[in-house]
Design brief:
With 228 residues, the chain is mainly α. It is built from 10 helices and 2 strands. A two-stranded antiparallel ribbon has the order 1-2. A hairpin with a 4-residue loop joins β1 and β2. It is elongated and about 80 Å long. The termini are far apart.
Length: 228
């Protein structure tokens, strides 16, 4: 956010907090506050429609005091509150992001990696919405697809047995990758257990991409063994 964004944001906060209102009433103090906030929040976007972010909404949530949080009662909003709100929102964006296949030639390692980094940076800064292509097929669709491939005999027996063992649709069985432990450094969830955030919260609507990759590699190895 720049100084214009900050000025508008503080004016909005002043409508619900008399402490901010008194600060903005003094021109010299208001100018100093705007400069300080702009420096602290330079990497936080004012809005990011594709990413579902709006700094004004974050200000409102602070004053709504969710979960019996009484912070706003004693302290006016500060830049660190918005930094924390954006960090949490950005983490959710990245948890829902799945790297699309780069257009660069795979043998060009520098360009290939640069394209992945650029995409992740765009998502992390709110300039691009997360790519969730891997979740395009919901659990019901996965079951229909499994039935179709089983009928045609295209699904290898090890894969079919693995899906049956996991029990798609059962409790904690929406994702077949639950069959393997999650290798994500901040997760390490054991097999059949949901992935977790660094704070320990269980992820109910997705899993980490490293776990999906590990599961795919396991099924591929089983398929190769069956073919051999």
């Amino acid at each position: 956010m720049d100084t214009q964004h900050i000025a508008a944001l503080l004016n909005y906060a002043a409508t619900v907090d008399s402490r901010i209102r008194r600060t903005m009433a003094d021109n010299q103090q208001a100018a100093a506050t705007i400069r300080t906030w702009a420096e602290a929040l330079a990497d936080v976007p004012a809005t990011a429609d594709g990413a579902g972010w709006n700094a004004a909404h974050a200000v409102r949530r602070y004053y709504e005091q969710h979960g019996n949080d009484q912070s706003a009662r004693y302290y006016a909003i500060e830049p660190h509150h918005l930094l924390a709100a954006w960090a949490g929102h950005r983490a959710q964006l990245m948890n829902h992001h799945f790297d699309p296949v780069p257009t660069a030639y795979p043998d060009d390692v520098t360009a290939y990696r640069a394209e992945i980094v650029d995409t992740r940076t765009a998502v992390a800064t709110g300039r691009q919405r997360p790519n969730a292509a891997y979740r395009a097929i919901d659990p019901a669709g996965q079951r229909r697809l499994a039935a179709l491939t089983t009928d045609t005999g295209a699904m290898p027996a090890p894969v079919r047995n693995e899906l049956a063992r996991i029990g798609i649709g059962a409790r904690r069985g929406r994702f077949p990758e639950y069959a393997v432990a999650c290798p994500h450094p901040t997760c390490r969830a054991s097999a059949r257990k949901p992935c977790k955030t660094p704070s320990g919260r269980e992820l109910r609507d997705h899993t980490h991409d490293k776990r999906q990759t590990a599961y795919t590699e396991r099924l591929t190895a089983q398929q190769n063994d069956a073919a051999a």
